Structure formats: structure tokens, C-alpha cells
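Section 3.1: Structural characterization of target chains.
Under the original work plan, the team committed to producing a structural model for every single-chain target entering the pipeline before any wet-lab resources were allocated. The record below documents one such target. The sequence was received from the expression subgroup and is listed exactly as submitted; it comprises 61 residues.
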Amino acid sequence: MTDNQKNVLEYLAENRYACLLDVVDNCKLSMAGVKKIITKLKEEGYLVREGTLKNPEWIVK
């Protein structure tokens, strides 16, 4: 796991209701980079998004 992936995962663990813009701002990454990282983390089973479109929640495993 890369440092950026760890940073995103740690941020989402602390901020379960964060939107992607929050992750971009706090992790100092581009939107495209955050999307790639989140996709990879979901594929590897580290991260799950639950809830509705208006009220999503990130679950870190």
C-alpha cells in the first residue's frame, strides 16, 4: 500500500461522511488521484461505501 493510499484510508476512517472534495483538500491530492486510490482500495477490500447517494458513509475494514 502506498503512502497516499494510507493517507486516504486514515482520513476516511476518521471522517466517515467525507465527500471526495474533502479528501482532495485534506490529503493534498488531485481529484483524479483520489478517485484512482479509492477505486483501488475498494477493489482490495479495504474500503466500502454504504448508504444513499445523498448520505453516503465510508466503511474502512
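The helical segments are 3-14, 20-27, 31-43.
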